[in-house]
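Recall the central idea of this unit: under ordinary conditions, the amino acid sequence of a chain determines the structure it adopts. In this exercise we apply that idea directly, starting from the sequence alone.
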Amino acid sequence: MTDTASASTPERQPAGTAAGPFEIGIFTFGELTRSVDGALVPPEKRLADVLEWARVADQSGLDVFGVGEHHRPDFAISSPQLLLSAAAVQTERIRLTSTVTVLSSSDPVRIHEDFAMVDLLSHGRAELTAGRGAYTESFPLFGQDLSRYDEYFDDRLDLLRKIREQNPVTWQGSTREPLDAAGVWPRPLQEKLPVWIAVGGTPASVVRAGRLGLPTYFAILGAPERFQRLAQLYRASAAEAGVQPDRLGVTSHFYVAETSQQARDTFYPYYASYIGQNMPQAGHLDRASFDAWGSARGALFVGSPAEIVEKILWEHEMFGHSRFLAQVGLGGLPQAETLRSIELLATEVLPQVRKALAGR
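Accordingly, the structure predicted from this sequence is:
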C-alpha cells in the first residue's frame, strides 16, 4: 500500500500562487427549502435559478461561482460537475468550482476526468473542492462502509493528487483497485487542475491541508474568532512541511441589500425558514438571535454593502484569507432579491474590499 495523503509528498507551489487581488464569489447547494408560504421549489426551477445566478455573477464581475453536492430530497444538485458544465458554456470569465465534491464516496479517476472536461468547456476556469461531506447519505448509497470515513478520504485524495501530477499513473491504495500505468483522459487545459480542501473546523484537517500545500476553505457558521487559531495552524503546518502555504478561503451565509434595515427585514423570514429546515438542531431562529448572528462580529453576513465590506475586512485581519464565497439564495429567497444581492456584492462590495486591501 502506498502512503496515504497525510504522509504524501507536499505540493511545491510556484512562486506567487497566493498573490493577486482578493477574490469574491458565490456558491449554493441548490437547496429546495420551502418558502415562507410553504411551497417547495421544484428542482427544475431551482437548477434554472442557479444557472441564472452564475450568468449574473459572471456579467457583474464576481470571481468565483460554486455548487455543492448532496444526495437528499431537499437538494437539487447531486453532481456539481454536471451543473458546472452547463455554467461553463453560459459564462465567459468566472472561475467554476465545486463546493464541495464528496471525494470520500467518489472515484478520483472519474472526478478528474469530469472536471477536466469542465476545464476544457470553460477554457481553463475549472476548480474542485474536496471534502468529506457534512452529510453521510452518500456512503450507504454507493455501498461504502461509514466506519472507514477517514480512510476513504485520505486514500482518494492521495490518488487524486497523483492523477494531477502523472499520466499515465501508477498507484496502490486501500479503498479501490490499484492502477498500473493507467492513462486518465482527457487532461485539463490548465497545467494542473486546482484542488481545494474544505474543512469545517477540525484541526487535523487543517494540518493535513497545510502539510500538503493545498488551498483551504473555512466554512464559518459559528464564532469567526475561533477560526483564527486554525488559520495560524494551517500556515504553521505548511512551514513545518517546508512548503509555501497556499490560499485560504472563507465561506458564509449571505444577503446584502441597499440598506441594513432592508437587508435584515427582507432576509429574516427566509433565513429562519432555512435554519428550521436545514439546521433543525439550532432550533427556532427568533429575530433577536438573527440580529445577533448578523452583527458586526457575528458569522452571518447580512446588511448593507458598507457593513459587508467592514466584516470581510475584519475577518481578513484575523485570517489573512484571499477569497470570500457567499452562500446565496437561502430559504426560498425570491429570485429577484437573490439576483440583486449578487449584483451588489459584485458592484458595491468587491471594489471597496480590493481598494481597502490595496491601501494597507
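The first strand starts at residue 23 and ends at 28.
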